[in-house]
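User: Here's a structure from my thesis project, written as structure tokens. My advisor, Dr. K., wants to see whether a designed sequence matches the one we expressed. Can you design one independently, without my sequence as a hint?
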């Protein structure tokens, strides 16, 4: 028989076998679209707007459905009830971290974001405790944020009211706050190391949201054998870790166990305490990865939210005017905003929540996984199955937020103008894997935004009606389009 014919028949048999195996497994899993052999349902998903694709699937298959991203099944949770039932009501079972091959390759199961099991619990518990001890939600970190807000204002004054792209300066401010917590020092905005770290971090965020990285994450075999932006991502992570290791070595030489100065000092002390424990999770590699997680998560999410927030305030000058009025009435012009002011500023608080709800920064959050076999809504989900939660479906729920596609602070105000909490506000995710830095992020967003608006009027270079607020990427991150803004001193 012709070798070509044999090859075609063999490949056809393999594809049919793959399809049969997928369909036989699907009998126990939630329903979903029929997958193609090997490719699964990837061709049915719009990589530029994954949230919309998930919404379309949910209309056909319901709030819990199965997609094949490559050969492996992924269960998708769509809507508040399904997400709450899984991540809150059965939070322990759904607390695993799902497969994320490219970042997994970079971190090797260490740190906080991509880790699992006891290592994840230990690192998360220690990090939360240490951040609290250094004042997360208390005065000491508030002082650092206030100081950085003042530095940011001085840098914005140097623009002399000229139109500028605010991306760089809005990256620097939250990055310096997390640097002061991790390294015990802030950087000048023109410091070479600081700029290098920011550049690599920004580049990696763009790569994470690219279509190519989604392909690599769904077909991990490509990571080792194909060129592409994933290699740049891994190199950037390696370079950043090299810098963290240098800082750790400096800390080891200057460490005073009775007077820890920052997060690294606290971790090194814990390493010393655990020295005799052969099962300890507190090792140098873990410290490097935790620092990387804190640095990345503590910088990019806050800076992108601020950048998007200013764009929305440019687009809606009537809303900005109300925030200005509240700042003038509660804070005035002669002192820095503080967290205590927030209780007296319901409109500003509503605006901040609406910014986060509207922009839907991380539409599907990071992937979860079930830690054991579970029966969920009469479906069987095997241990280790990846779970995707559509945060978009919660943040843009039309029953909770009328006209969800409209930017409206009224979504978080009651009839008397008081701030109104919502269980549907899951901008930081929810459950066991909720963002560890939520308290710090909330503080930064309030203090940075109020300090900027206390000192400047915002002016668009085009008619506000012509500003486009559509995200450039709506895959892993929702990134705002580039824009120019003038900061006019008050």
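Assistant: Designed independently from the structure alone:
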């Amino acid at each position: 028989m012709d070798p070509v014919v044999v090859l075609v028949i063999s490949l056809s048999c393999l594809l049919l076998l793959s399809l049969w195996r997928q369909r036989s497994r699907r009998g126990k899993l939630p329903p979903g679209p029929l997958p193609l052999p090997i490719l699964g349902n990837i061709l049915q998903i719009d990589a530029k707007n994954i949230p919309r694709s998930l919404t379309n699937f949910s209309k056909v298959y319901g709030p819990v459905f199965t997609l094949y991203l490559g050969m492996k099944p992924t269960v998708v949770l769509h809507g508040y009830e399904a997400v709450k039932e899984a991540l809150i009501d059965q939070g322990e079972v759904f607390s695993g971290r799902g497969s994320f091959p490219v970042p997994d390759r970079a971190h090797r199961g260490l740190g906080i974001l991509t880790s699992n099991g006891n290592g994840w619990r230990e690192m998360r518990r220690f990090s939360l405790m240490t951040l609290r001890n250094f004042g997360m939600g208390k005065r000491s970190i508030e002082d650092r944020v206030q100081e950085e807000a003042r530095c940011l204002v001085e840098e914005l004054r140097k623009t002399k009211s000229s139109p500028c792209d605010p991306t760089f300066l809005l990256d620097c401010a939250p990055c310096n706050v997390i640097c002061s917590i991790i390294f015990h020092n802030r950087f000048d905005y023109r410091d070479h190391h600081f700029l290098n770290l920011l550049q690599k971090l920004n580049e990696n965020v763009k790569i994470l949201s690219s279509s190519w990285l989604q392909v690599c994450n769904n077909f991990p075999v490509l990571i080792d054998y194909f060129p592409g932006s994933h290699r740049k991502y891994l190199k950037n992570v390696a370079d950043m870790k090299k810098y963290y290791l240098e800082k750790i070595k400096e800390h080891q030489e200057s460490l005073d166990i009775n007077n820890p100065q920052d997060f690294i000092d606290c971790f090194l002390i814990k390493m010393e305490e655990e020295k005799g424990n052969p099962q300890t999770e507190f090792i140098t590699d873990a410290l490097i990865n935790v620092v990387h997680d804190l640095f990345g998560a503590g910088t990019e999410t806050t800076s992108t939210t601020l950048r998007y927030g200013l764009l929305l305030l440019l687009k809606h000058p009537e809303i900005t005017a109300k925030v200005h009025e509240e700042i003038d009435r509660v804070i005035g012009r002669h002192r820095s905003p503080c967290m205590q002011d927030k209780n007296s500023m319901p409109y500003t608080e509503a605006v901040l929540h609406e910014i986060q709800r509207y922009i839907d920064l991380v539409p599907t959050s990071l992937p979860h996984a079930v830690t054991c076999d579970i029966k969920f809504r009469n479906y069987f989900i095997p241990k280790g199955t990846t779970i995707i939660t559509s945060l978009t479906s919660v943040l843009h729920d039309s029953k909770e937020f009328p006209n969800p596609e409209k930017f409206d602070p009224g979504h978080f105000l009651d009839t008397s103008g008081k701030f109104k909490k919502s269980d549907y506000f899951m901008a930081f995710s929810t459950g066991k894997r909720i963002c560890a830095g939520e308290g710090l992020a909330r503080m930064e967003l309030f203090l940075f935004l109020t300090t900027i608006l206390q000192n400047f009027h915002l002016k668009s270079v085009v008619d506000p009606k012509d500003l486009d607020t559509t995200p450039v990427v709506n895959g892993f991150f929702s990134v705002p389009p580039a824009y120019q803004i003038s900061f006019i001193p008050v």
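When you compare it with your expressed construct, this may help: Residues 89 and 109 are 26 Å apart (CA to CA).
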